[in-house]
Design brief:
Layout (H helix, E strand, L loop, with lengths): L1 H28 L3 H27 L3 H30 L38
Helix pairs in contact: 1-2, 2-3
Length: 130
Amino acid sequence: MDLLIDILTWASFISGSFFLFIGSLGMIRLRDFWARLHAASVIDSAGIGLLFLGMMLQTGLSLITVKTLLIIGFLLITGPTASHAVANAAFSSGSRPRDLVEDASSTKPTAKKRTPRRAKKPATKKNGNA
């Protein structure tokens, strides 16, 4: 039984560390605020939750396990709520994702879809002497 608990603990630690690593890379490499906000919520919910689950498996059934379970519950409630509040505040202030073409909830007129600009032709002299 101890071997099974150790295997589950290490699987939880490794998968939690994987989510933390990928989310941290996302915070560094993603291009805009909206994508980085998603990466931050992945770090908070999946990564930390799995690490705490591994800790709970190692401590066994005790008061520490109950406290850790309460911390996980608190993080799973507050993390997505905070991410939603930040995203809602940014959206309300006028910040929009790059790929958003129409916004049905906005009262402001939406910007038209961006088209790539054409390269300018080189200027020629008007007198015909090129």
